[in-house]
Give the backbone structure.
Amino acid sequence: MCFAEYFPIFSRLPADEQSLLLSHVFLQKIPKGTQLHRDEKDCLGLLLVLSGQLRVFMTSQNGREITIYRLYDRDICLFSASCIMKNIQFDLNISAERDTDVWIIPINIYKTLMQKSTIIANYTNEIMASRFTDVMWLIEQILWKSFDQRLANFLIEESNLQSKNQLHITHEQIAFHLGTAREVVTRMLKYFQDEGLVRLARGLIEITDIKKLNELNK
Amino acid sequence: MCFAEYFPIFSRLPADEQSLLLSHVFLQKIPKGTQLHRDEKDCLGLLLVLSGQLRVFMTSQNGREITIYRLYDRDICLFSASCIMKNIQFDLNISAERDTDVWIIPINIYKTLMQKSTIIANYTNEIMASRFTDVMWLIEQILWKSFDQRLANFLIEESNLQSKNQLHITHEQIAFHLGTAREVVTRMLKYFQDEGLVRLARGLIEITDIKKLNELNK
C-alpha cells in the first residue's frame, strides 16, 4: 500500500520532492460504477491504481461509446490530469468497472513537480507515449480487422479478465466497448452461436468453443 | 530562416543550451517523394518544418495505408525522433508530399537536452499531446463518420491545400489516405459524379459542386 512502491520514479527524486509528494498524496476508494472524469473540468490529478479496473472511453455526439483502453493494478492514469496540458483538446471519460483503490497526486502538486523536475516531466512523456501506443493499436484494429475478429478478441479478453466462460454483459455494453451499434453486435453474436462458438441467453454470453474463437482472432 | 524563430521555446532556454542547439542544428532540403522515416531504426531527430508538406502515415501488414496527420510550415515532427521514447511501440512512416525544407535537431542533442531541461521535456509533452489530439480526432472520424463524409472532407481539404478544383490524384492514393480499399473509393466517387458533385477523368477529379460537398461533410 506504500505510495513510493506504486510510483516507479519515486526513488530517483530528490528528498524535497519526495516529501512534497508524500505530504499531499492520498488514497481514495472508488466504488464500481463511479464516473470519475467526464471532461477537462473535473481535473482530479494523476491516479495510481492500487487495485481494481478503470475504463477510459470516448463518447460520440449521438451517444455512442468506444473503449480506448483499460487500466489495472499499478497502471497510471494520466488523462485525469489532462487539464495540465493545454494541447490535449479531446474529452475522455473514465469510469470504475470494479471497486478500485487509487493513490491521487493532486493536480497542483503534479503541475509544480512537472515544471521543476526533468525526471517527472520525462516520466509524463513516457506515460503519454504508452497511451499513444494503445491508441495506435486501436486504430489498426478498427481499420484493418474485421468486426468478427474484434468481437472474438473482446470476448476472449473479457473471459480472461473475469476468469470465467459465462459473461454477464449486454449486447449494448459490448457495442459501447467496440464503438458500434447494438444491432451489429447482436447480429454477429447470433452468427457466433450458429457456428457453435457461444451460447446466448438473456444478459449472458457463454463461450462454448474458445479454441475456434481464438482462431478467428488471428 | 533563423532557427531561433522556428523553435518556439528557444528564447526561454539558458545560454549554454541555446549555443548547444545552434552549433548542431542543420538545414536540410527534402525532395518531394522522399521517404524520411520508415521505422524506429531511422531516427533522424526532431524536425522543424520551414516550408513544404510532410505526410505521417501508418501501413498495414497487407500494404494498406492511412494518413494519420500532415505537417506544414512551422510544424514540428516528433516521431522522427521516436527512438528517444522507449514506450512508443508503433511504427509510423513519414514522407515528403512536396519539396520540404526542415531544420533538424540531431537525436543525441535532443536527448541530452530532454534529460537536462524541464522546458524541453515539457515542450516535448506538448507536441505529443497535440499529435494525440489529432489521432483522437481521426478515431472519431473513422468510427462515427460515414465514408461519404470522410471522402467529401478529404476532397475539400485537398482542394484547399492545392488551391484548385482539379485534383491530380489517383483513387489508390485516396484509399491510402483514408485507410480503405481502392474499390471503395472508386464506388463512392462514381456516386459523387452521378450526384453532380465531381467530374472524373483519368488521374483527375474535378470538384464541380463544392457547396453540396460541404453539406455532405456536416
The two ends of chain A are 39 Å apart (CA to CA). The CA atoms of residues 6 and 74 of chain A lie 6 Å apart. Helices of chain A lie at 3-6, 15-22, 107-116, 118-144, 147-162, 171-178, 182-194, 210-216.
